[in-house]
Amino acid sequence: MPDGKIMLFCKGADSIIYSRLRRGEQPELRRATAEHLELFAREGLRTLCIAQRELAEEEYQLWNKQHDIAASSVQDRDEKLEKISDAIERELTLLGGTAIEDRLQDGVPDAIALLASAGIKLWVLTGDKVETAINIGFSCNLLSTEMDLIVFKVDEDKPERAGAELDRLLATFNKTGSDEELKAAKKNHEPPAPTHALVIDGDSLKHVLDDELRQKFLLLCKECKSVLCCRVSPSQKAAVVQMVKNGLDVITLSIGDGANDVAMIQEAHVGVGIAGEEGRQAVMSSDYAIGQFRFLTRLVLVHGRWSYRRLAETIANFFYKNIVWTF
């Protein structure tokens, strides 16, 4: 700052920022901010919290050295950077919340409807609040009023409830989460009936991505037409893609427009980046770059189809050529 002070400013989801605030301070501001964010989210606005903390010179210099070491490490760089950031993002003071209107691009609902009718299953992995994600889900044809909305929520204090809740939900579909059901799910590529949609937040996702519960969660998602994962971190986005890719043995495609989508784009078989307001990070790490979301339908259903046919004909030609040469 101009007066020589060193200030740390943090922005992030309310669930993350609130857990890092100094205990016992600003109860009124916290309550008022939480109420406002809830109000904004219901209107479909994208919300964030902002907090700050003053750092001592020695504390900053020590942290900066450790940060430089983590940033230049070759192995596990992301994990080390996250750990070192986590060390300093503590004892914060809340400044307030922000909300912006982030309108959907033209043609997004039609593109999603077309992809769904082509038999492609759509998952939304977002950092938004649950209410915002549900609003966006309705506005872009992922959710409909006829669907039963399953909101999966596990209390932070009672993580053991996650398994029981999964069993209860699976029982409504006459499933138990066994290995035989997973084998059957791998073979069955028919899209599920559009009767159920699942909404889950990042805190609950942390529990269900555990090795013991992952299979049950995957089978539950298989029964739902749409899956919305809200308030998820970039690493959780990649973990969900990995779970689907390895668990169901299917071809996955990730599409995103910002730096927080990079992990997910790189994890999927095919990564698509959208160039635009959020910069070029997603585009730089993807296999294909497009200007708007609606171009995805043409990329997948037209150019994807042509590429598939060309490849099939090429393989047949090579096979024929080799037989001719051999004989």
List keywords for this structure.
327 residues, 50% helix, transmembrane, transmembrane helix, alpha/beta, ATP-binding, 14 helices, HAD-like_sf, single chain, magnesium
Concise description?
The chain is of the alpha/beta class and 327 residues long. It has 14 helices and ten strands. The radius of gyration is 23 Å and the shape is globular.
Structure overview:
Its main location: membrane. By secondary structure, the chain is α/β, with parallel strands linked by helices. The chain is built from 14 helices and 10 strands. It has a 4-stranded parallel sheet with strand order 4-7-6-5. It has a 3-stranded antiparallel sheet with strand order 1-2-3. Strands 8-9-10 form a 3-stranded parallel sheet. Strand 9, helix 13 and strand 10 form a beta-alpha-beta unit. Helix 3 runs antiparallel to helix 4, helix 5 runs parallel beside helix 14 and helix 7 packs parallel to helix 10. The longest helix has 32 residues. The chain is globular.
Major sheet: arrangement of strands: 4-7-6-5
Tally of DSSP helical segments: 14
Described by the principal axes of the CA atoms, the overall outline is globular
- State Rg: 23 Å
Residues in helices, as a percent range: 40-55%
Q: What class would the helix/strand composition place it in?
A: alpha/beta
Biggest β-sheet, characterized?
A: 4 strands, parallel
Estimate what percentage of residues fall within beta strands.
Answer: 15-25%
Unreliable segments of 5+ consecutive residues = none
β-strand number: 10
* Order of helix and strand elements from N to C terminus: EHHEHHEHEHEHHEHHEHEHEHEH
What is the oligomer described by this structure? single chain
Mean pLDDT: 89
What is the terminal separation in angstroms?
A: 80 Å
Keywords: ATP-binding, Magnesium, Membrane, Metal-binding, Nucleotide-binding, Translocase, Transmembrane, Transmembrane helix, Transport
Family: Belongs to the cation transport ATPase (P-type) (TC 3.A.3) family. Type IV subfamily.
Enzyme class: translocase
Organism: Cryomyces antarcticus
